[in-house]
Amino acid sequence: MSLSANTREFIGNLHPSNLRYLFYLVSANETSYYSVEEVPDFITKVSGWFLILLLLEFVVIWIKGHKEGFAYNDTVTSISAGLFQQLLKIGGKTSSLACYIYIYDNYRLVTMPVDWTFTWIVAFFLQDFAYYLGHRAIHEAGIFWSFHQMHHSSEYYNLSTALRQGAVQEIGIAFFDCLQSFIVPPPMFLTHKLLNTVYQFWIHTEMIPSLGPLELVFNTPSHHRVHHGRNPYCIDRNYGGTLIIWDRLFGTFTSERENEKPVYGLVENVKSFNQLWLQFFEFKALGWDKGRLKGRGGNPLFPGIVNKLKAIFFPAGYFPGIRTYQFFLWRTKWNTAEAIPRIEKNVVKYNPHLSAQLKCYTLVQFVVLVFEYYSFIKACSSITTN
């Protein structure tokens, strides 16, 4: 029986050479392209490895008897969120690309050849710094948290959590992507944006301990576990993509505590696996509900237009009396742990029972969805930016 073209391509992408993309183990020469159409979809190239490593991690978790390491319904929700996000990208690339190209073509300050190693290095650092700024903004700039909170909504921390992405998150960080467009050629920007994204997959695990001296420079599983924690010391920390140096420079770095391991999820967990609700509920919560909250005496916590705008655009955890300061284009809390509740003594994760029949039904649907997704992505790859 002959295999379909999509199946053959999927199997072909499991070549060991594609595995190194997960760790940014590439050279400047091999990842320098003259047009955005030439840039491979690195996410699709490693997606088979995503699946294999995810399954391998589950086997290790099961062997170790770590029953709280994953849940079926949570995993399906996370992977579905990743598929949802990828389907909304233009031509399988990124939603900011068209705007980026326009700015670069009309307003760039310098023209850097794409075949220079120096250009590759500059693009690497600028993309990682832009990611730090954008990532920090969608955590701290009020309503922009709505674009990203989906990624933090899982109470589990495993490789499937890496795929649990906000469907419209790209819109929330498009401005920061385009900051590079005055200098970095579009093919180089797209290359590093995709590789930066791919790198962040493997750091979503509890299976890898501290990596010693590498922790000083690179973002690692230990650093990113802190970022996903809802413990007071974890809130708004470790925003780095590939590098952790920006957090160290701007005071947002915190080490993982051996005596207080991160507990994952949102400060107030949603307790739902409804994909659309998880993706979009926070827009209403921050954009409308928060500004209309009342205190014990019935008086509004955010009276007047100015205060209601603060409710929308100040940090998600901001309430009157909490001190903030200006960082770049937004306000951030002086003390990120302020008003954050301590972790409950007996943590109970949301994991409603599913019957064997329902698990089989959803699994069949899910497998069909994944195969249809690959067919759709293949068709999208032919879409150009022209």
Question: Can you characterise this structure?
Answer:
By secondary structure, the chain is mainly alpha-helical. It has two domains: about 5-280 and about 345-350, no CATH class; about 360-385. The chain is built from 14 helices and two strands; from the N terminus they run αααααααααααααββα. It has helices spanning about 5-10, 15-20, 40-65, 70-85, 95-105, 115-140, 160, 170-180, 185-200, 220-230, 245-250, 275-290, 305-315, 355-380, and strands at about 325, 330-335. Strands 1-2 form a two-stranded antiparallel ribbon. Strand 1 and strand 2 (about 330-335) form a beta hairpin. The model has no long low-confidence stretch (mean pLDDT about 90). One of its GO terms (molecular function) is glyceryl-ether monooxygenase activity. Keywords: Lipid metabolism, Membrane, Oxidoreductase, Transmembrane, Transmembrane helix. It is a multi-pass membrane protein. This is Fatty acid hydroxylase domain-containing protein. It comes from Steinernema glaseri.
Shape: globular
Number of helices: 14
Total number of distinct structural domains: 2
Secondary structure: helix percent: 40-55%
The class by helix and strand makeup works out as mainly alpha
Count of distinct strands: 2
Characteristics:
mainly alpha, single chain, globular, Fatty acid hydroxylase domain-containing protein, 14 helices, 386 residues, 2% strand, 2 domains, two-stranded antiparallel sheet
Would you summarize the structure shown here?
Pfam families: FA_hydroxylase. With 386 residues, this protein is an all-alpha fold.
